[in-house]
Amino acid sequence: MATNGAFSDYLEEAIINHFLRGQAQIAPSKVYIGLFETDAGEDGSGTETTYTGYERQESEWGAPSGGKTANDAVITFPQNQDAQPVTISHIALFDAQTGGNQLFRAQLLSARTLEQGDSLAFDAGAVELQVD
């Protein structure tokens, strides 16, 4: 469902600080996935969707293998309650349900337009993230 993505600037700096500078980093207690209408960007400056009813969803991830991981359970977003459709082209992972720090971003293999009453769901294993 998502192509290879990239770390955010925040996560890149956290990795450098942890592994090269010996500065401990605190892992997020939960990871949330957000929907974007544009590339989220390394600095998180993309356009996260704001349709009525939308909120980031908690996600759980499997153990890595070969530098890859995938979502462990179905991730379902609330229905678009607006009359205006929205087109979702990217996703991003965050350490908070609102605000917080962007961790990772990726483009969907194909954009999805959500009309009024439509929701978006990712089956378990459908969101695969790879670190290279």
Catalogue the unreliable spans. Answer: none
N-to-C series of helices and strands: EHEEEEEEEE
Name the average pLDDT.
Answer: 94
Largest sheet: 5 strands, antiparallel
Overall number of structural domains: 1
Query: What percent of the residues sit in helical stretches (DSSP H or I)?
Result: under 10%
Coarse morphology: globular
Strand order of the largest sheet: 1-7-6-2-3
Structure annotation, total helices:
1
Backbone CA Rg:
15 Å
Strand content: 25-35%
**Structural category:** mainly beta
- Compute the number of strand runs: 9
Distance between the termini: 18 Å
What does this structure look like?
The chain has 132 residues and is mostly beta strands. The chain has one domain (6-130). The protein is built from 1 helix and 9 strands, in the order βαββββββββ. The strands form 3 sheets. The protein has a 5-stranded antiparallel sheet. A two-stranded antiparallel ribbon has the order 4-9. It is globular and about 50 Å long.
Features:
mainly beta; two-stranded antiparallel sheet; 1 helix; 5-stranded antiparallel β-sheet; 8% helix; 132 residues
Quick gist of this model?
This protein has one helix at 9-19; strands at 6-7, 31-36, 57-59, 68-70, 75-76, 86-94, 102-114, 121-122, 128-130.
Detail the topology: elements first, then pairings.
Blueprint: E1 6-7, H1 9-19, E2 31-36, E3 57-59, E4 68-70, E5 75-76, E6 86-94, E7 102-114, E8 121-122, E9 128-130
Antiparallel strand pairs: 1-7, 2-3, 2-6, 4-9, 5-8, 6-7
